[in-house]
Specification:
Blueprint: H1 14-17, H2 25-67, H3 74-90, E1 104-105, E2 110-114, E3 120-129, E4 133-138, E5 143-150, E6 155-167, E7 173-180, E8 183-189, E9 192-211, E10 216-222, E11 225-235, E12 238-243, E13 248-255, E14 258-272, E15 281-282, E16 284-291, E17 295-299
Antiparallel strand pairs: 1-2, 2-17, 3-6, 4-5, 5-16, 6-14, 7-13, 7-17, 8-12, 8-16, 9-10, 9-11, 9-14, 9-15
Length: 300
């Protein structure tokens, strides 16, 4: 005490204020294995359906090629498509810029806004065939991204990235509200000529519930808000966009017999037949950059 003022050598952290110690990241990521297994199984099931559809598509393509006399100008179309795909692959959206936020404690209902560095980071991917670009990244400073491209040959790819924080209720039971306003920049395409292509991307909140021994119990929040979702057979589309503060919100019932990992996550999926052929072909891409300035929770 000096001149009637209390001197604090360093700032009090939010988790220490509520008497909690952050669970190590390796325990949280072990719980995310359930999600990874679910994503792996879903990707394999979808791939089986894609392969079945592709076999039928090849039959239709051969019939169509015979009916139109072999080329009918499609070789030139494919040449232009390859040139456009090459230009698309060289264009990347700039990384999302993070707004500065302030760490603070709420009065009344218990709540807090937590700013980077966050407690956890996570990435996952699955792919088949030829994937020309596969980049994914997440760091505790609040930046996460993925960039996936298929154009040279047939391939599919899914990617996920996330950043998150630890939370354990300081009351026996309660309702937990969670929100975040990340900045995003994205770019996608599904350009094609008489062949299939697909691209989608999402952003959302994910909550993992763990028992006190560190075992994963469930995912009471698995939010995926679509940013784009398109499938094409002829010509296709290309688009890019941004949002300086994309609103994410969710709430759930919580109790002190569990602790929780609160994540902001994003993901994307692409499928394309590639541009090897002279007449038929397609490419697909999905690129998303996310900057998370804070994750806020309120316990009521």
């Amino acid at each position: 005490m000096s001149n009637g003022k209390l001197l604090l050598e360093k700032e009090v952290t939010i988790n220490s204020l509520f008497g909690n110690q952050i669970v190590p990241e390796k325990i949280v990521l072990a719980g995310m294995k359930d999600l990874e297994n679910e994503l792996d199984q879903s990707f394999k099931r979808d791939q089986q359906n894609r392969e079945l559809a592709a076999r039928q598509t090849k039959i239709l393509q051969r019939s169509l090629l015979s009916a139109i006399g072999g080329d009918a100008g499609n070789t030139e179309v494919m040449k232009q498509l390859k040139e456009l795909s090459s230009k698309r692959g060289k264009m990347k959206p700039k990384p999302a810029e993070m707004a500065r936020d302030e760490q603070r404690i709420f009065t009344g209902s218990i709540g807090a806004t937590q700013v980077p560095p966050f407690d956890y980071k996570w990435t996952w991917h699955a792919s088949t065939g030829t994937v020309d670009t596969l980049n994914k990244a997440a760091n505790v400073n609040g930046n996460m991204s993925f960039d996936i491209q298929v154009y040279s040959a047939e391939g599919t790819c899914s990617a996920r990235t996330a950043v998150g924080i630890f939370f354990r209720p300081m009351t026996k039971k309660g309702i937990l509200k969670i929100w975040a306003n990340p900045a995003i920049n994205y770019q996608w395409s599904d350009l094609c000529n008489w062949d299939s292509a697909h691209s989608d991307g999402f952003l959302g909140l994910y909550v993992g519930r763990y028992d006190l021994s560190g075992g994963f119990v469930s995912a009471p929040v698995n939010q995926k808000i679509s940013l784009w979702d398109d499938s094409s057979w002829w010509y296709g589309q290309y688009d890019m966009g941004s949002n300086s503060g994309f609103p994410l919100f969710s709430q759930l019932n919580v109790d002190s017999n569990h602790w929780y990992a609160l994540w902001v996550w994003c993901g994307g999926h692409i499928e394309a037949a590639g541009l090897e052929g002279a007449v038929f072909g397609s490419n697909a891409g999905a690129t998303l950059s996310v900057a998370v300035p804070s994750i806020t929770w309120e316990l009521i």
